[in-house]
């Protein structure tokens, strides 16, 4: 049996299948139904055994059946229909009945039980058929909408005329963290801020006004039971009503990802401003120095001027690399691999270490889970920072600590009053520093979800500690696939 489109439910006729072995009853009943109901389409049959075939071939909203028929009785027809169409309205309309038959019919799931009679009784039948068909259509539509909403998995709520939650779905319960029993009967203020409730009331007033929209979409913060605030969009509409307000229904959509994207865009804009500021200011000095060196080289061709020119160009190139890297390093790390910090530090030291300087590494491997290129960049910047800010000879130590690893030196250390500034873009105490090396270190650590602390080393120098997941600080061999 097919089911019509719910959008056509209010205009389509009531389709009725009537089975009775008496043709005169079929004709008379059909005439009365045509007269009593606005739109009705009656299919008749005198063969009870063909009822299921008729239902399978058409669209019906109700079955009317006699009880005493050759070969089958009405209860047998009812049981056959219930096996295939458990919710289809079925009215037993019989001239031969008893309390025992009525009781059996009710137990079998009959929708209505009526004795045959004159015009008044047929009008009762018509009224019963109409109500049963309307309820059946409503049930079909409700099931369809429920299926769609379950598929969307959006939090849904219904607030009654007393401004209390009357219904919430499982997704709503999951979002708020409250038990269903805690929510039902409570006002919206349970999960909305005072300003959120006020805004919702204002939007609802617009909806129910004679000139207002059918629905409204607005931003609202949902307060979960655990205290977390979840930014959402509330899609609200009023329940159908004539004179008295019956309540409202709404669908919430989590806006957390949208907020995160907005924050990421703001961060990108801040980095762009950062870059623009440094390009317009910090690069000006080495550029002016390079121009002066070039001018002097033109005048007397001294070798030292060309050396100065090359040095300033190299400095600018390094600054540009450092400026561009923060934008790439601030992204969240999604794929990680085991990285041996000791090996990375040993290889990087070859580029930064001065003849008199030293690098101390732990015995064996020091493994963390991270993005290899970024971890290398982090270690390189820490080593360069030690070399740039410490007089030679300096000893840099890389080691394991309780929550991860550290890089320290035996230089002058970091001024306690300026510890909070060392990761800020442009901060440096070196005469030729760019001030972006430690900014990059901080952003790489943030991208990995690592906590970084600056403390004093055992040799009174600077110590940078990185707290990473303890589970990843295992021997490298244990992390490699067998």
What does this structure look like?
This protein has 4 domains: 6-149, Response regulator (Rossmann fold, 3-Layer(aba) Sandwich); 153-254, PAS domain (Beta-Lactamase, 2-Layer Sandwich), CATH 3.30.450.20; 258-329, Helix Hairpins, CATH 1.10.287; 334-482, Histidine kinase-like ATPase, C-terminal domain (Heat Shock Protein 90). The protein has helices spanning 23-36, 51-57, 74-84, 99-107, 119-152, 170-176, 180-183, 194-208, 256-281, 284-300, 303-329, 341-352, 372-389, 437-448, 476-479, and strands at residues 14-19, 40-45, 62-65, 90-94, 112-115, 156-160, 165-168, 215-223, 229-238, 247-254, 337-340, 358-360, 367-370, 395-401, 404-409, 451-456, 462-467. Residues 2-10, 429-434 and 470-482 have low confidence and may be disordered. It is elongated. Helix 1 crosses helix 5. Helices cover 45% and strands 20% of the residues. The chain has 482 residues and is an alpha/beta fold. Helix 3 (74-84) links the parallel strand 3 (62-65) and strand 4 (90-94). The strands form 4 sheets. Strands 2-1-3-4-5 form a 5-stranded parallel β-sheet, sandwiched between helices. The protein has a 5-stranded antiparallel β-sheet with strand order 7-6-10-9-8, sandwiched between helices. The chain has a 5-stranded mixed β-sheet with strand order 12-14-15-17-16. It contains 15 helices and 17 strands.
């Amino acid at each position: 049996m097919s089911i019509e489109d719910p959008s056509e439910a209010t205009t389509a006729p009531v389709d009725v299948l009537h089975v009775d072995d008496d043709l005169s009853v079929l004709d008379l009943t059909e005439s009365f139904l045509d007269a009593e109901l606005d739109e009705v389409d009656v299919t008749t049959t005198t063969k009870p055994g063909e009822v299921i075939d008729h239902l399978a071939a058409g669209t019906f909203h109700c079955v009317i059946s006699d009880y005493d028929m050759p070969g089958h009785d009405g209860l047998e027809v009812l049981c056959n229909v219930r096996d295939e169409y458990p919710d289809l309205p079925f009215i037993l309309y019989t001239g031969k009945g008893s309390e025992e038959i009525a009781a059996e019919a009710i137990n079998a799931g009959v929708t209505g039980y009526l004795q045959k009679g004159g015009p008044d009784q047929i009008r009762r039948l018509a009224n019963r058929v109409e109500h049963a068909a309307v309820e059946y259509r409503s049930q079909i539509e409700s099931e369809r909408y429920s299926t769609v909403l379950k598929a969307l998995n959006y939090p849904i709520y219904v607030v009654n005329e007393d401004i209390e939650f009357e219904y919430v779905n499982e997704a709503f319960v999951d979002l708020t963290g409250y038990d269903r029993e805690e929510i039902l009967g409570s006002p919206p203020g349970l999960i909305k801020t005072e300003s959120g409730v006020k805004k919702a009331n204002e939007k609802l007033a617009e909806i129910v006004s004679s000139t207002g929209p059918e629905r409204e979409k607005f931003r609202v913060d949902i307060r979960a039971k655990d205290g977390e605030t979840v930014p959402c969009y509330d899609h609200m509409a009023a329940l159908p009503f004539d004179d008295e307000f019956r309540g409202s229904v709404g669908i919430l959509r989590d806006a957390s990802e949208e907020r995160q994207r907005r924050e990421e865009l703001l961060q990108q804009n801040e980095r762009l401003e950062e870059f623009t500021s440094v390009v317009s200011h910090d690069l000006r000095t080495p550029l002016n120095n390079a121009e002066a060196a070039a001018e002097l080289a033109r005048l007397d061709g001294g070798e030292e001027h060309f050396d100065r020119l090359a040095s300033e160009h190299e400095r600018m190139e390094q600054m540009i690399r450092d400026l561009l890297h923060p934008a790439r390093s601030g992204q969240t790390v999604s794929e990680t691999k085991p990285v041996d910090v000791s090996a990375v530090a040993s290889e990087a030291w070859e580029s930064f270490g001065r003849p008199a300087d030293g690098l101390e590494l732990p015995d064996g491997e020091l493994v963390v889970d991270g993005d290899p290129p970024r971890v290398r960049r982090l270690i390189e910047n820490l080593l360069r920072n030690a070399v740039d800010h410490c007089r030679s000879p300096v000893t840099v130590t890389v080691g394991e600590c309780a929550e991860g690893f550290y890089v320290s030196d035996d230089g002058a250390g970091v001024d306690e009053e300026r510890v909070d500034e060392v990761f800020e873009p442009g901060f440096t105490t070196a005469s030729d520093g760019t001030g972006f090396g430690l900014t990059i270190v901080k952003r790489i650590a943030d991208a990995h979800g690592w906590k970084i602390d600056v403390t004093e080393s055992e040799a009174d120098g600077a110590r940078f500690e990185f707290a990473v997941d303890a589970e990843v600080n295992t021997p490298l061999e244990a992390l490699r696939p067998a």
